[in-house]
Amino acid sequence: MRSFFSFCFLIVTLGLGMTAVAQSDPAAPATPAAPAAATPAAPASATTAAPTTETAPVPAADTATPATPAPAATQAAPLTQSDVSAERIFKQEAKLVENMRHYTPLVETYVQRLKPDDDFGTLPDRDRYFLGRLVLADNRLTNKVFKDHNQSRFFSRVLDRLNGFYRVNYPHLGFMQMVFLDQEFDKEHYALKFLRRQFLGEVRTLVFDVTPRRGKGSDETRFLGRIWVEDQDYNIVRMNGTFGPSTEMKYYLHFDSWRINMQPGLWLPAYIYTEESDAQRNSERKLAMKAQTRLWGYDLKHSGQQTEFTTMQVESADAVDNSQRGANEVGPVLSEHMWEREAEDNVLDRMERAGILAPDGEVSKVLQTVVNNMEITNNLNIEPEVRCRILLTTPLESFTIGHTIVISRGLLDVLPDEPSLAIVLARELAHIALGHRITTKYAFSDRMLFPDEKVFLQIGLLHTPYEEQTADLKGLAFLQNSPYKDKLASAGLFLKVLSGYSHDLSWLVSPHFGARFANGGVLRAATIDQAPQVDPKNIAQVPALPLGSRVKLDPWDDHVEMLKSKPVALLSIRDKMSLEVTPTYPNLVRFTTATTPSNATATAAKPAQPAQ
User: Fold this and answer.
1) For 350-396, what is each residue's pLDDT tens digit?
2) What gap in Å lies between CA 399 and CA 380, rounded to an integer?
3) What dihedral angle (degrees, nearest 10) is formed by the CA atoms of 548, 555, 451, 358?
4) What is the DSSP letter of 283?
5) Which of 289, 298, 228 has the alpha carbon at shortest distance from 270?
6) Which of 412, 414, 370, 364 is nearest to 389 (CA)?
């Protein structure tokens, strides 16, 4: 295909000892050629038409863009309601592609391969993980990869053999391209058929089936599926389907892609769920997989502390109290603590600006409460005070940056209860209490000057084996004096299940910064000893939650909050889905500044919809 959407999402090469390699269409030019002026002929069944029971509503006048002169009529027949709706949808989708040139969000994809299981239907037995930054420029989609020390094994060897018959490669760029429909999404190349109206969350949408208009012998890659369009500005808010045509040598994954209203009139991609149960249809060998892709960090330039400069006030000289200056002199011990705190703050600020650390907020306070419980019961008086933050990535990990405890979003998602969280925090609190400090080389600001994509390589936070061992012992002592000492059975079950999956889900338990969470230690061993036997067929025993169970991430400004959802009764053991990827159904709402005051500054800093 002659556009940046020609990238092959999934290529499977059959034959023993052969390896599939995903690549872009070698015939694709750097800049796609303009479509022909003449409209290609299409079969009658592909023409745009409304069903007999309901017709697509006529869209209101477009107030989000400047008025433009109406083009001269080229057809004798008058436009139908469906024609007007389709034209508006095509126009808004072209505007979305143009808007995406102004943003470079982070894109994280986590893939699980599935194996059949008599009791659970399927269970994950292999995984893959990608983190990069989406850049759309010069009519091409590129991926700036975030590399870390764990990924070296991925780039230095061929992907694991899935079985003895074929190998498969999941290119991250293919998952990124699922945020778009097609650069040539227009009436010459696609037909829309209106189906019905439907609410997605609190947003009323119009539902259309989308079919490509293919010329005779055409093999260009096109989207086939269904779209949901919000009924005010006619932005596509959900896409469900696949690209095609697929062949024996390449297979396009099915996906369900969602967009969120992040600013007035601005809907941007946020979630993609991918699933396959029969990727090799003409083979006895079948591939079953599911994956979740998240996008965030759209407004990194105006997030976090950078917006505080706009409200900074400088007091006049005569307002400064010069009395008691002598009492504020800094001694050697305090100066050392201040120097360490400066290194700590530099690292936290750099991670936040790179888009991998959430700003301080609601979830941090939840963690702080558990830490406070252990500090009080163990008579700890730690200065400077202990802080908590959330790493925005999926791999399960926790670590300390000076006196700041950091837990990944993925780990917080799957922990079953507060005692399980207490085990994680107790170990990190022990590192702080024992004086296991961050290296103060990060107090020099020049060490923070590097590309965002190298943040995992440039910042080292690992402790020595001796420090890990002593922190395990101290953390166990903290737990024995805490309110959680008699409630650790569920935490033991969690660690048992995690240990069992550590080989199959190696990327999920491989950290970016900290030590491998599934590794054994005194604290983990003592906790596991308190746990009952794992009983997979016991519906009341849920040792770990599915990914995405607890934390909600704002893709615009990277703030996180606890997911507000009603508890759902498990109908069978198949509903447990410990550590598994699941579909995403966001509660769509329209953006209002009254309900999201944190975005007020960012709204003024950047136009919501750049002019066409």
Assistant:
1) 999 999 999 999 999 999 999 999 999 999 999 999 999 999 999 99
2) 20
3) -60
4) S
5) 298
6) 364
